[in-house]
Design a protein that fits this description.
single chain, Cytochrome Bc1 Complex, Chain D, domain 2
Length: about 110
């Protein structure tokens, strides 16, 4: 079963969110690239998952979940706690954080 799943093509999700790509790139570079890398592929040493090719609506939902404490606070998820801190810090800097999340999602749609 795992061999079959591994043989399936990696088909990026279709964009559903419109946002300011340039602003999203700036926010991503300042807040996300250190762990998720410039290309959005993530890295094993910070346990940062791949973001490029992800469903944009899922990305926005998960950032909201980290901010609200739905995600990232389980004792078995040490890296989730880092995301809670990062997502909360990003929100504290802005009044229109939903727009900024959508901007980052729009940018991620371009670096598939």
């Amino acid at each position: 079963m795992s061999a079959y799943i591994a043989s399936l093509p990696d088909v990026p999700a279709q964009p559903t969110i419109q946002g300011d790509i340039a602003n999203g790139a700036d926010i991503y570079d300042r807040n996300c690239a250190a762990c998720h890398l410039d290309n959005g592929n993530g890295t094993w040493y910070t346990d940062a998952p791949k973001l490029s090719g992800m469903n944009d609506w899922y990305f926005v939902t998960q950032i909201k979940n980290f901010r609200s404490g739905i995600r990232g606070l389980h004792a078995a998820d040490p890296y989730g706690e880092q995301m809670v801190s990062m997502a909360t810090a990003m929100a504290a800097k802005n009044t229109d954080d939903t727009k900024e999340m959508e901007d980052v999602a729009a940018y991620l749609n371009t670096i598939r």
